[in-house]
Structure formats: structure tokens, C-alpha cells
Amino acid sequence: MSTTRRCPHAETPVLDDEFVQDPHVRYAHMRADAPAQRVLTVTGMPVWVITRYAEARAALADSRFSKDFRRMGAVMDGHAQQGKPRPEFADSIQAHMLNMDPPDHTRLRKLVMKAFTARRVEALRPRIEEITAELLEAMAAKASDMSDVDLLDEFAFPLPIRVICELLGVPEERRDEFRTWSNSLVGGDPESARQAAGAMSTYLVELIARKRREPADDLLTALIEASEDSDRLGEQELVGMVFLLLVAGHETTVNLIGNGVLALLRNPDQLAAVRADPARVSDVVEETLRYDGPVNLATLRFTAEAVTMGDVEIPEGELVLVSLSSANRDEDKYAGAQEFDLDRSTSGHLAFGHGIHFCVGAPLARLEGQVAVRRLIERFPNLSPAAPHDDVRWRFSTLMRGLETLPVRLN
């Protein structure tokens, strides 16, 4: 007799603002109940969320969970609630490897990795150090006239947007627009996301055309020129890939820095350990990735056929979200998972995903996070919170896990 069960639909949880402000409490209950559970988005669309570590890791590498954007639309339309249509995005924005299955994904990733090499990332270290120092000095100057500063606005946001824009060759005068577009894309408003995607797509077409006319020593030129057996990225694929690298390369690092500093401020003993030994910033970055990583729920998948997760059957044609945040707080994987502990082994955390879609920008995010946290603590050894810990609010996004503001005192 089969032990497979379908998770009941009664009292279905909703991925609303209450969930966003404290998902870990909800996840703990969900993990205790079942490895996968059906929930509703704020628009009323039903999706399955996989919460336990073992099942999440398996799902991220399971080809039965498809990411093909060309088929995803039909699945979403089949689940959309009446009167609440899904936002429409141009194919040029969606045509990137995070939204594809093999063999398309394999081809695109191979071409991108030819341009986005470890050598290119490591070569950025001096520039990241330079930008970090500039931002910290500007923050110190502002703090002299104010009792506190917002660490996100003054440091965590501008550092990665400057790095990724310089890496790709985006002119300085357009960088504030990318921050605005990025915030809209990962927020909860479908219309704002659609408008931001359209504006970014239009600009990227112009930027790519200019790089074809005027090649430079940057990643975008390298992507244009990357080839494998005479194969190159097409125009639509280039737009999609630059879109992905800009948004993912910016948003994840902002949240990694902000979440890591908040965790240290909430755990003074851990902050003291880093002050005593700055080389421990690598532990800070890895434990932050596990404890409160920058991505909450991985991007949508759908079941190409029925899949059993533990003792729960997810039928064919269902939308699925894998909770990286929940998996990384699973006590069956990490003892004392609710504690921020720099001495723990974080091996195997899923903050950057797993399998073929593992984040290509992970080395850059780690590098920026380590430089940012180390230089911040060295420059401001008396860094302290400027507001009660419980007063922080998290940006409304089920995809990203990031703060709205992080007020701090520097001296």
C-alpha cells in the first residue's frame, strides 16, 4: 500500500507581508508538518513550497522540476486566479539560463562561463577594495553631521551596483536607474515589475549595440565575443543574460552584506570574535549565507510529471518554489540551526542553489561580502545598532531576503 499523500488544501498559508517579516517561524511549522506544502501567493496563485533540506537539495537537481520559461507561462495561466492575470515580460528579459532546461541551459552556461571566469572575478579585488574604501570614507563624513546612518543606503546598495555595472560596462550615469529597476523587479507589485523589465530591456538593447560598435575590456564585450564551436549568444540571449547578471549580481550582494551585519549586531559575541580576528570574515559570509541568505525562495519551477517529495506527491503541472531559507535552517542538517554561530560547519548550504543552476556569481558575491564586512569593521570598530533589533523591517519580496533599512552608529 502506498504511503504517498497529497498535502491538504484546507487553511492554506499565504506568502504575505506577515510571512516576509518572519518566515523562519512559519517554515519551522511547515518543516514539522511535511517536506512540501501548498501555499498561496499574495495574488492568490497556488504554489508548492519545499522546505526540508534533503528534499530541497534533491529538487534543485531534479530534471522533473522544469524551469523552461516557454512552458512556464501556460502553467501559470492555468493556476492564475480570476481577475488577477500574471505580469507579462518580454522574451528578451526571460531568455536567460536560469529560465531554461538542458540542452538550452547547458549551451548558454558554457558560453557565459567562457566570459565570467574566476580570473576575471579575482582581478576585481583591488577595485572592490577601492570602492569600499571610498564608500566608507563618505559614510564617515556623513556620520559626522548625523547621529546615525543607513548602512544599506550608504554602503550595502552602492557597493555591488558599482561593481557589477563596472564589470559589465554600464555608464555611471545610468546606475541609479538600475537600482530602481532592480528594486521593482524583486518587489511584490506586478505592474511595477513589468514596467521596470520593459525599461531595462530597452536600455540593454541600446547598450549591447554600443558595445558591438565600441568593444571594451568588460564582461559585456566578453559575452558578445564568447564563442563555442562557432556558436555565440544571440541578441535576445545577450539581453537576458545581462539582465540576469545585473539583477542577481546586485540584489544578492546587497542582502548578503545587510543580513550579515545585522546578524553580527544581534550577536555581540560573534562580532567581538571578528574584531579580534578579521580573517574570520569568511566565516561571517558563509554563516550569513546559511542563517539568513540573500535568497528566500528560489525562482519558480513546475512539475513536468508527478514528483514525490518524502511522503508528499506533487502532481504534474504544479508550480513549485524551493525554500533555500528553510532548508538552511533545517535542524536535521544543522544542529542549533536557529543560532548564528561562526564556529559551525556550513558545508552544503543551499544559499546559491545546487545542481545545474548553481549561481555563477557566487565567487563574486563571496568576494564582495568578505571585503565589505572586513573593511567596515576595521574602519568602524565601535559599530553599533541605532535602533532596536526588533524594529527592522524586511523588504516585501518572496524571492529576496533583505532589509528595508539598517540604521547604525559608527562611533
Automatic annotation (TrEMBL):
| InterPro entries reported for this sequence | Cyt_P450, Cyt_P450_B, Cyt_P450_CS, Cyt_P450_sf
**Pfam families with a match to the protein in the record:** p450 (PF00067)
**What family, per the record?**
Belongs to the cytochrome P450 family.
Signal peptide residue numbers: none
Q: Which organism is it from?
A: Halopolyspora algeriensis
Q: Which CDD domains does this chain map to?
A: CYP107-like
| SUPFAM superfamilies reported for this sequence | Cytochrome P450 (SSF48264)
Name the chain's protein. Answer: Cytochrome P450
> What UniProt keywords apply to this chain's record, in alphabetical order?
Heme, Iron, Metal-binding, Monooxygenase, Oxidoreductase
Tell me, what is one Gene Ontology molecular-function annotation carried by this entry? heme binding
